[in-house]
Amino acid sequence: MIKDVIIITGPTAVGKSEIAVTVAKKIGGEIISADSMQIYKGLDIGSGKITSEEMQGVKHYLLSFKNIKQTYSVAEFCEDCKKLIKEIMLKGKVPIVVGGTGLYIKALVNDYNYFGVKRDDELRAKLESYAENKGLAELYNMLKKLSPTMAEKIYPTDKKRIVRALEICKSKKREFNVNSKQFTYKIFALNTDRNVLYDRINSRVNKMLEMGLLEEVKNLVKEGLNLEDQCAKGIGYAELLKYLNGNCTLSEAVEKIKQHSRNYAKRQLTLLRGINPIWVEAFPRENAIDEILKEVEYGHDN
Hints:
This protein is of the alpha/beta class. The protein is built from 13 helices and 8 strands.
């Protein structure tokens, strides 16, 4: 029997979902998505959301359960994910967490506890204003004074996480690493040659456009999507919204999607190196799947 929670992660366009479904079928697993865009209804093509057909009967969780006006935090993901892990284990199935949102994965495996600190929009607005007037470096210095430990975990240029950390610091409740993991994790990070990955990213963007990504964004705009919404920050959506707002041409937007996707892949890989995963060459697929299965202990009664 498998003892660990399996995590399959890696940069965008490397093929995580495809491999995860095959592994899940082999070991009796169910999949929990760790993707900050796939949680939204209607954000299907641009987020690379797995289809019902591609699931091949494998149960998936944390997909399409938020509307475009809702927000979702790392803390909420950790809470929801841990509940689902327990539920899946109680069914005698293997929990497999799959996705490329590195902050979700890092917070989960490090067992960060946010003690229910909710977002404070008024405080966030003040902190954002402070950063604009004084500079992001001063905002980061504020965090270092309040909590050097939290500051060490955050890049000085990551405004979103700096604001969230200050929000927690200024609350009566605090986030910290509890150092007593509820579960043990076996983390697999898929990767491949950088040129191959970048070619896949570019091809994937072209395919998304052929599948109707622009029409998807237009439909979301009709439903009220705008650049202020959390989900509108997603790559593919932000650039096409700017095009629809008349801020660039379509070809410029497409090139920006490709560029931002490549940059995002770099950031994903940097973050993943910090959690020491088992690195797996993503191609050929059969070899990647075999390598994961060799590392995973499983029986035939799943």
